[in-house]
Every structure is written in C-alpha cells, then in structure tokens.
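Below is the record:
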Amino acid sequence: MSDLVTFGETMLRLTPPGNDRLERTDTLEIRVGGAESNVAVAANRLGVDATWLSKVPDNPLGRRVVRELEGYGIETNVVWADEGRQGTYYVERAGAPRGTSVVYDREGAAVTTTRAQEVDFEAIQNARVFFTSGITPALSDTLRETTTNLLKAAKQGGTTTVFDFNYRRKLWSPSAARQTLSSLFPGIDVLVIAARDARNVLGLEGDSRQLAHKLGSTHDFRTVVVTRGAEGAVAWHDTVVHEQPAIETDTVSRIGTGDAFTGAFVARRLVGEDVPTALEYAAATAALKRTIPGDVALVSKAEVEGVLEEETGGVSR
C-alpha cells in the first residue's frame, strides 16, 4: 500500500508548439495534468510511494492518461467507466502582454459521476496521507458528496488528510466555494491555501502570517500552509508560524507549480522532516517545476537538494 493516496481528475493537456495560437495551429502537444496526480508525482519523485485514485473512460484517451501517469512512477487505482468522456484542456503559451491562456473542455467527464462506494476505501484508510483539492468538489454535486465521504473515511481510518483549497473561478463563485469548502474543514488535518483565496473567498483579512494564524487557531487543523506566489509561503504548526521565501527561477511553465510545492511538502513530512525543512524542499521543488514544460514536476531529490545547497549552503536538518 502507498504512503500517499490522492483522488481527483486528471485531464489531457493540448498545447500548440511554441507560442502559436489555437485557432491556427495544425499540431497539438499532448501531456497530462491534474492537481491530485501532480501532487502524487512530485511526492513520488522525492521518495514517497504514491497512488492516484480516479474514474476515467474505458477508451484510448482514458488509457492514455493512466499509462502516462504510471510512466511517471506512481500507482493508479481507477474505476473504468463505460460512459462519460475524458476531460481536456488547452494551453496557449505566450509572454507579456498576451500571457498564457487556458481553455477547459471537461463537461461530462467520467470522473464527475464518481460515487464514494466506487472508490477503494481500503487504499485510503491504509495510507498515511490522503490528499485531494478544492477543484474536485467544484466539478459536480456528486463529487461534492464523494469528497466529503472520502475525507470522513480517511479520518475514520486514522489517515492524515491534506487538502489544497485550490479555488478556480472558472468552476464556481467565491460564495459557493466558501460554503462548500468550509464545510469540509472538520475533515481536514493539513490545509494548503493561497493568501488571495483566504482573502477573496473566505473573507479573511491580514498578511500571510496573520491569515495562517487565524485559520490555524479558528479551525482544528494540525498545520496550515499559506502560499503567496513570488513571496514564498508561511506555515502555522503547533501555534508557531514559519516563513519560507520563494526561490528565484527562470520560468518556462508556471502551471503545476503549486502542486509541486504541495507534493514536496507532504513527501518531506511523511519521511519525518519538520515543517521548516519541508517548506524548504517545497520551495525548491516549486522553483524547479517552473523550469519544466507541462504540469508535472519531473525532478529528483538530488536536484532539489542541489537547489537548497545553492540557496542556503546546505539542506537544513
């Protein structure tokens, strides 16, 4: 059984070569990407056995997703659906002023019909950590119920639950997200949330340290990690707030950076590192991810520690 089990949607990502436009390109590069599978891959690259749970169509596109994720080294445990489609999304890459844009095409995806009883509860309850994100309950009413039930099952099995708030404005309104995601808080041990989401969705005020402290002291979380983009992250743990600056990088692709951060943080906590050290590894992994095309952090532990060596003169112990 894996130490880390994740649950959520993974899509096929279609991208024109270079900075070409979707309306003109004759070629599309195919990769896979999804918050929960991205986290699983990042954690696995840092030495943690990880399994991704989901529901995919039993067709060539669903099989493509599963095959690619298995090629990255994680285990897959999926429900093969006879109905529903494979979700996709399209990415146009560009610099300023056009910028990178994303078009989603995920309506009717097989994963949106996943019920809790279809998911491998044993895998979740035998894991040390169960991870999912706020994207999953945003996809359908069914997945809102399923997410709630899976978090409850994990808690009942003694599995630590980690949840990335991961608000997506293209999926739902701030008020709808606040109502649903706040209701999940009792089932969450470790919360990861962007500072902007804490302010704009939850309506909290203050700087990142204050946000982390408010969330940690108000709810029954063990740990709260507040990410803040180019400024790095802070984490509240045992009433103490730890701060981690971002590491400078030449960005090739920012998509998946937050997932790389979370996967590395979870991985290092699983192997017994303290919160400040886990934050260091997370920042270094996120920096490396930004140099890699696609959604997935194809890094090694040696590369991550090499970045930390350059930044701090050595890995904290």
User: Anything to note?
Assistant: The two ends are 28 Å apart (CA to CA). The chain has a mean pLDDT of 96. DSSP finds eleven helices and 13 strands in the chain. Residues 35-84+111-311 form a domain with the UDP-N-acetylmuramoyl-L-alanine:D-glutamate ligase fold (CATH 3.40.1190.20).
